[in-house]
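URGENT: need a sanity check before tomorrow's submission.

F., can you look over the SURF1-like protein record below? I want to be sure the sequence and structure line up before it goes out.
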Amino acid sequence: MYRFLLSRQWVIITLVALLLVPTMIWLGFWQMDRHDERAARNQLVADALAADPVPVERLAAPGHRITRTERYRTVTAKGHFDTADEVVVRRRVNADDEVGFHVLTPFILEDGRVLLVNRGWIPADGPSQTAFPEVPAPPRGEVTVEGRLMPDETTEASGIKDLEGLPDRQIMLIDSEREAERLGARVLGGYVAQTAPEPKGDVPQRLGDPGKENAALNYAYAVQWWLFAAAVPVGWVVLVRRETRERSRTAGEETGAEETEPAAV
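Structure tokens as predicted:
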């Protein structure tokens, strides 16, 4: 009755089913790994945002690379802004997906070291973005700023290509080591996305809180792949049973036809 399983068509169907099951199971575990990674990153961000503010000198130093656990930590710094060496970061968007600049202003600490402060987003003056935009001035004199500690930007992490030959006082990526060379100063690693004090006007627009990755979606995908894996053998059995019934019915019809056929004279 089941000799048809040795036919070429059914051998191919069976082999495909045998390959699909472990593949789908592996894809389910891969999605669970993605879920765990995203959940862990979300927890790191939540822990960093919930931590009490600390002086930036406790976490950052010249040449120091900001770690995963230090990223998004709220830090404070006391000193004054140096607008003479201020630069803007090109091709940055705000919450409304409008293209403009981020304002990067050196902040001179009390001990003479420099902290890079991203004061927020401003619109571009024109579509070319070649002219240095009009930048609102920061508070004058000694001030205490607060913000989220961020690592240096890279093309690999941001997807932004570091172009050369840019207009004066414009950069593509925030790199503390490169800024240290430009300023000829001891610059703390990474930078701070300023959250306080608030600007007097609407700009620079403060950078939004870090987004939360949708880890639950990966969990749903994992369950989906495992359900598919379970459905494959069930579907194979259903197809075999249907094929068996059709072959039995066909065989019965042929037998009945032979029995009712009149004998030759």
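My own read: The mean pLDDT is 90. The beta strands are 54-55, 74-81, 87-93, 99-109, 114-123, 143-150, 170-171, 191-196. If you see anything odd, call me.
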